[in-house]
Amino acid sequence: MMMKRRAFAALATATLVASTGMVGAAQGQTAPPVGAAFVSDPPPGIAPEQSAGFARGRYHELDQLPDWGGIWFLQRGDPAMGRIPQPPLQGQYLEDWNRWREQVQANDGVELRSRSNCSPPGLPRIMMLAQYPYEFLFTPGRVTINQEAWMQTRTIWTDGREHPPLEEITPSFHGHSIGHWEGDTLVVDTIGISDRLEVGEGGKHSDQFRLVERIHLSPDDPNVLINELTMTDPVAFSGPYQLRVSYRRDRHGSLIEFQCAENDRNPVNENGETLYL
Q1: Domain residue spans of the chain
Q2: Which residues of 104-127 are buried (b: 16+ CB within 10 A; e: fewer)?
């Protein structure tokens, strides 16, 4: 995976690749000698010295960006949100969602999840969590979103790089995000989000899922940040899926540590599913 930092031995790397089903040692990385650090290839679409890895002498560029300081909480009661609609699922994805809904109704509203209860929701749902704030950090060539929930970190590359080919991206909770500024609006394009993650309530998407966000301060209130999300998936959706969420600023707030511990008191059935008592 792209975020892998160090290989302790060539054998350990080969074991990891074999156990996770990854193709190649790591995306965009060259396998090093035993005990050496990975050296990533320059990002596609730009000269090496243009990448976010060369930040010195470029911090003055940040003065031109909007003020998103502090931390941001999802704004409850935003009339533009209303009740979040379900995505326009089609075909097998709609049939699977209908089965999921029937199962939840038959189980007194409790969902039987196929993955850990302590795993993060991933995109797009993690950008719509009511009780956990977000922090946006600007550095040359990237925007970093620190999320209190699950202590997640999301990187949005703004150095002009392109997406790698989709088949070279290991599907993940946050996928691969590139962005650019249109005035004071950050436009973010994300692909490579794992198709095991939910969109809406219980819906799923294919590996062709794409998320575009337009994030900007409200023209009516500089302490409100607006995120306009447009999701497309030619396989799973019959058309675009659009949402709008907003966040309220806490100028002097800070994120606190998040720790999720699995509840190991509930039994597990023969299919590996948690039973709720």
Answers
A1: 10-60, 71-250
A2: eeeeeeeeeeeeeeeebbbbbebb
Distance CA(266)–CA(277), nearest Å, equals: 7
Assigned CATH topology for domain 71-250:
Lipocalin (2.40.128)
Give tens-digit pLDDT for 213-230.
999 999 999 999 999 999
- Residues facing residue 212 across a β-bridge: 189, 230
* Cβ atoms within 10 Å of 148's Cβ, excluding its own: 20
CA distance 105 to 17: 40
Residue type, 238: S
pTM here is 0.81
CA distances to 84, 88, 246 from 242, rounded to whole Å, are 10, 10, 14
Q: Where are the alpha helices (DSSP H) in 67-221?
A: 91-106
Q: Are the C-beta atoms of 231 and 87 separated by less than 8 Å?
A: yes
Q: What Å distances lie between residue 100 and 70, 94, 112, CA to CA?
A: 39, 10, 9
142-171: per-residue pLDDT in tens?
999 999 999 999 999 999 999 999 999 999
